[in-house]
Design a protein that fits this description.
It is a single chain. The protein is built from 12 helices and 27 strands. It is of the alpha+beta class. Helices cover 22% and strands 31% of the residues. It is elongated, with a radius of gyration of 25 Å.
Length: 501
């Protein structure tokens, strides 16, 4: 089976722009209003016009007419493409596919994407990868006017950005409710694929809550230390045709309401091959309002590391539950720790709703900020418990996790969770941790310690949690580490290796 790549949708520059017209409308906004509140004022005073339809519920003309005037073409310029992360990772990739690579050496590099006007005073939502590190951002309106935009805020963890153009009276797309989106319902994708004029395509919602791994690739910070993996992926999957240049464009329902921001496609060639992915608007609302109020996202954290369960993972951990999130670690001082959650717990519900995949929890928490409360239901030793967790800010999570990450995550290149009672009985042990993941390039990868390995002792000390491993390693006098336990197939194992501290 061929591996299908997942790529962002930004594109190389080219093509014409759409022709449209604007009806300038002024609205009286109050300071501090959220984008959703502003939109309520706008659409109460200015209802969308009716469009004659001859095909009943499957006619998309009204939705297209309402949305296309407010979807814009974004052109970006990079004066130094060699240091522009967005340019190198996305734009050059598409030029490799389509033969435009020769342009890189001739003056400033350029890119192209889409955006959606969400406020009559010129705020536009797009993707972070469309505008990341751009030296200039030009917004081309459907009536051919060109305006320079400034960045209000960007967030790589959700691939969202908010930019603004000067002026007022712009048409806008009404924000919808992505929680109400149903698999199988008709949707429209609107944007500027291949830098063409405004293009509308139709399809259905194929799936919700998709995780595709395109955002969860944390790169080292400037000091070389690993960054926390805080990406939130819970994409709406659609088969509406979208292509390069559609990044940041609108995914709307048949009522013309914005339910998602197009971000990526599953493709082997870089062109549309059947599936596209959009960021749900309910997640975007919180992020965009944070951009406007603070310039950055103020995200709340539960303070746990977890692995999504399925039949294979449940067998590995020795648990019976195949749905939910197995807690690998709890951050000291974090919200989960203060609420009493422990390693080995299985989170099964958030706000009373069943959790099937990590995205079910991540998107819900992604809409909240520090100080907000969330109700979690979890299993411990087969019994169900409920706790209210107060979310903490990112700084508290980083400060509590730095010491552990510096030795265990960075050097060993692995994550751990306590062994279950089933595994303890199987191996006739009283303590131990199980290796839940192995990172490429770490010590465990180099000495071929596999995921699913059970470690009972480190440097002769019994271990039950990640902190025990840290303590055992830091107590070593010669920087040598000895681990003992069992391989995934049940054989005994013992490894010894040096480690930096």
């Amino acid at each position: 089976m061929k591996k299908i790549g997942v790529t962002f949708l930004a594109a190389c520059l080219g093509g014409a722009v759409a022709v449209g017209s604007y009806k300038l409308i002024e609205n009286k906004y109050q300071d501090g209003m959220s984008f959703e509140e502003k939109q309520k004022v706008h659409f109460t005073n200015n209802p969308m016009p009716a469009v004659n339809s001859s095909t009943g519920d499957l006619d998309f003309t009204q939705a297209a007419a309402a949305v296309t005037p407010a979807v814009v073409h974004i052109k970006t310029t990079y004066n130094n493409p060699g240091t522009s992360g967005g340019r190198d990772q996305m734009q050059d990739m598409f030029e490799d596919f389509f033969g435009g690579g020769g342009r890189r050496s001739r003056g400033p590099a350029m890119g192209s994407g889409s955006g959606v006007i969400i406020s009559t005073d010129g705020y536009i939502v797009t993707n972070n990868h469309v505008v990341d590190k751009a030296d200039k951002i030009d917004v081309i309106l459907p009536d051919k006017r060109s305006l320079v935009a400034k960045v209000i805020g960007r967030d790589a963890n959700t691939d969202l950005a908010l930019i603004k153009i000067e002026g007022s009276g712009y048409p806008i797309v009404k924000l919808g409710n992505s929680d109400d989106v149903r698999i199988g319902e008709w949707v429209l994708a609107v944007g500027y694929p291949f830098a063409l004029n405004t293009t509308v395509t139709a399809g259905i919602v194929s799936a919700k809550g998709r995780q595709i791994g395109i955002l969860d690739n944390a790169e080292p910070a400037e000091n070389g230390e690993p960054q926390a993996r805080t990406a939130i992926e819970s994409f709406i999957q659609t088969d509406a045709a979208i292509n390069r240049g559609n990044s940041g464009g609108a995914l709307v329902n048949t009522r013309g309401e914005l339910i998602g921001v197009n971000a990526a496609i599953a493709s082997q060639s870089g062109n549309y091959e059947g599936y596209g992915f959009a960021i749900p608007i309910n997640l975007a609302k919180k992020v965009l309002d944070d951009f406007k109020s603070f310039g950055s996202v103020r995200r709340g954290f539960i303070g746990v590391n977890f692995t999504g369960l399925d039949a294979e993972q449940a067998k590995r951990f020795g648990v019976n539950e195949i749905n939910g999130l197995y807690v690998n670690g709890v951050v000291p001082g974090g919200g989960a720790a203060q609420a009493g959650l422990k390693e080995g717990d299985i989170i099964i519900k958030v706000e009373g709703k069943q959790i099937y995949d990590p995205s079910d929890l991540q998107e819900r928490i992604g809409r909240l900020g520090p100080g907000d409360k969330v109700n979690l239901t979890y299993l411990r030793d087969g019994k169900e418990y409920g706790k209210t967790v107060t979310l903490k800010g990112e700084d508290s999570i980083k400060s509590n996790d730095t010491r552990t990450a510096s030795v265990v995550t960075k050097n060993l290149g692995a994550s751990f969770a306590p062994v279950s009672d089933v595994l303890k009985k199987k191996y006739n042990i009283g303590s131990g941790v199980i290796v839940t993941s192995v990172q490429q390039g770490g010590y465990f990868d180099q000495i071929e310690v596999a995921q699913g390995t059970v470690i009972t002792t480190v440097n002769g000390q019994s271990v039950n949690k990640t902190q025990d491993i840290e303590t055992a390693i830091t107590s070593s006098k010669n920087n040598m580490v000895t681990i003992s336990g069992f391989t995934p197939d049940g054989g005994s194992m013992k490894y010894q290796f040096p480690i930096r501290r």
